[in-house]
Amino acid sequence: MTLHLDDADVRRLLKLEPLIPAVREALVDLSAGRVLQPLRLAMDIPAESGVLFVKPVLTRELLATKLITQIPGNAARGLPTMLATLVLMDPATGRTLAIMDATWLTALRTAAASAVAADCLTSPGPKVVALLGSGTLARTHAAALRCVRPISEIRIWSRNPDNVLRCAAEIEGIGKKTAEQAVAGADIVCTVTNAREPVLEGAWLKPGAFVAAVGAPRPAWRELDDEAMKNVVIADSREAAAQESGDVILSGAKVAAEIGELLAGTRPRPAAGATIVFKALGQAIEDAVAARLVYQAASNMRS
After folding, report:
1. pLDDT digit string, tens, across residues 244-286
2. Which CATH number fits the domain 3-105+285-302, given the four candidates 3.40.50.2300, 2.60.40.1120, 3.30.1780.10, 3.10.110.10?
3. pTM
4. How far apart are CA 52 and CA 41, in angstroms?
């Protein structure tokens, strides 16, 4: 019987503690070639200045596809700017196992990937975090980063001051009036915006900072300026970064390695003290392993 899981179900069943190691393993498998994952299909929604993404993936154990929309105008409607649905199937038979709301799943696995990269690429010890963006991804990133590092301070900036205040209250952070104020001296910077022009300037970054560049998933969109992209660039997928990331394409930046290669030890990690940009495009295998956790938890509850 096909399970139908709504947003409340997914929020109840998906937890960061098992998700972070599952995403870590998925990124290693992706870089090792153990995942069949074509580039996502992207279709513009011109009337809403939005995009529909279709993301399929296949492994020995998983077959899944996710539909995700990014509609900037949803914020004014009281809706998430990203909405998603995922279909999980049996790879042997093609039978549909579950259909689930994947909006929260997407937000949590995105943050889990950033946490995996931060754990790999930052030194131990307390960190000052800057979040550029004050939506759902800012909240999930605060939670995920706290799973891998002690956080001494979280600063939040976005273009909407009211949203900044609400987000700061929810995640025990400090709102800042400008992006530069948020970033100054920060050890970890997460860009989690809907921006199509740069919101982060490389000149603001502390030497040795780690940047999780999460937004701008289209070839003409940017979150980071050219100066920021002159630093060491690590991607979740080299192929995706080369074809989908405006930050990489428009700056002419070279991807030094995939995070899965660094985690597996097949490529050397950047030199100590390097300023690092982790360009995440959000890989379908991350969605699939998150969906499997949800499905397993739901199945256990039914048995």
Report:
1. 999 999 999 999 999 999 999 999 999 999 999 999 999 999 9
2. 3.30.1780.10
3. 0.94
4. 8
